[in-house]
Amino acid sequence: MRRTEALNKLHEEWIPHNRPIFIGDLHQSLEKDLEELHKKALHVFTEGCSKALHMQAIGRKGKIGHIHITFFRNRIIRKDFRCRIYWYEQDLYADLVECYMEYDASWAFQHLMKFHASILQESKKYIGKILEADLTLIMRQEASLYMNYITNLFRHVIKVAVEQDIFLQLDKEEELYIRSGEHKDYNELIYKYESRLVDTEDIKQRLIPNEHDEYIHGNFRNIDLQEIYFKLVNLCYAYFTNTNLTSSLLVGCPLIGTDFRNAQLTKANFGHSLIHGADFGGADLTEAQFEEVQASYVMPTIEEFHIPPFMPTRFVGANLTNAVFVNADLRGADFRGAIFHGTSFSESRLDGAHFCEQDLKLIQLSPEQRKGLKIYS
């Protein structure tokens, strides 16, 4: 076998079939240890805010305009799993006074090392055809999958972190961008903070014509948007915290990671929307409609590996009185502490969904739906 054939076999057969095993192990560890991982990441972030605040107090730091969660592939290859969180002024990389905290992400990258050990063993079957440099390149490419899990953990953490007093006390630009990615290279926005007050009427005038097809990371907190109409509008990672969306239509919308905590969503219609990782914690969803929504948080498999590693969709503490889920994919969703009265889960998938034991007496589920639930006393 030639070297090219050996590499093709590795890339086209071994990696696609074995990648889900190691990512699956990571997925399980994140799910199992989420509370503790959340606590540690939040601690590092708030400590960094405290450090930046002190530097501002002594005149060594100006207004914060950017916060970057930064990965170093060279470090990862050397088995140094620390990434950094940088607090930058508006000038970003031109900010000459560094302010950062290091975050130990070994909980994620240890699974990448297990992947490396396994592919190293596999490469020995090709007797000299696969070089160490080939495996290093593969590792650098695979690392991004593990970075995604860390990024999504921080998406989860940032929602809480930006509500902490220490973050609010920072002297910040009117707009502050929190991003995650490689050092001075590709990165993605995970949170946009706006300090200026939202003008409700201005927001309504922009939204009601429904002319734009995306408002990713949009800030729609604490406003009245009753009976607003969205169809096929991208609202991923938007913030509707404490917003009134009574009788609104959000039909066929990408709502991945969207924050609806404590929102008024009575009679809202989310039909055919993608709500992976959306947070409805504490929201009033009385008579809300969820026909054929996609909200799965599933173990990565060869067949479903295209589904990104979102956080579970959360209905924790939500009022689901007379809410209707029809043909919905709710695998892995968290319903703990929700209010159930007349709630329907007709023909919905609930594998791995989280419920309190006492609440299961209040809802009608088929024997098939009850299989595989995660039940808490």
Give the helix/strand layout.
Blueprint: H1 3-57, E1 64-71, H2 73-77, E2 82-89, E3 100-104, H3 106-123, H4 132-161, H5 165-169, E4 172-182, E5 187-194, H6 200-207, E6 229-231, E7 249-251, E8 289-291, E9 324-326, E10 354-356, H7 367-370, E11 374-376
Parallel strand pairs: 1-4, 6-7, 8-9, 10-11
Antiparallel strand pairs: 1-2, 2-3, 4-5
Helix pairs in contact: 1-3, 1-4, 3-4
Explain the overall architecture.
The radius of gyration is 23 Å and the shape is globular. It has two domains: 3-191, no CATH class; 211-377, E3 ubiquitin-protein ligase SopA (Pectate Lyase C-like, 3 Solenoid). It contains seven helices and eleven strands. The model has no long low-confidence stretch (mean pLDDT 92). It is an alpha/beta fold and 377 residues long.
Structure characteristics:
alpha/beta; 7 helices; 11 strands; Pectate Lyase C-like; five-stranded mixed β-sheet; globular
How far apart lie the N and C ends? 58 Å
Q: Specify the oligomeric state.
A: single chain
Largest sheet: number of strands, sense, barrel closure: 5 strands, mixed
Mean pLDDT: 92
Q: How many distinct helices?
A: 7
Q: Total domains, how many?
A: 2
Strand tally is: 11
Summarize the structure.
InterPro entries: 5peptide_repeat, Pentapeptide-BTB/POZ_domain. This protein is an alpha/beta fold and 377 residues long.
